Known about the structure:
By secondary structure, the protein is an all-alpha fold. It is 50% helix and 0% strand.
Amino acid sequence: xxxxxxxxxxxLCAWAATGxxxxxxxxxxxxxxxxxxxxxNDEWAAATKAYLADHPREGSPDNIKLNPIGTQ
Length: 72
C-alpha cells in the first residue's frame, strides 16, 4: 500500500512547519520563561572574532589564527 506523493509532501511540510513553530516559541519567544544571556550581543561577538583572529601563543612571540579558513 503506497502513499501518494502529494500526501507525503503535505505531511512533510506540515511536520516541518509544526517543528519550526515550537522551536521559535521555545527558543526565541521564551514562552516557558527564561532569558537571553547578556553575552549574546554585538560587542561580545566582535571581541570573540578579534580574539580568534589573533590568538596569543605561550611558546612563541608570534600570534596564530585559530580560524584561518573563516578569515579568508
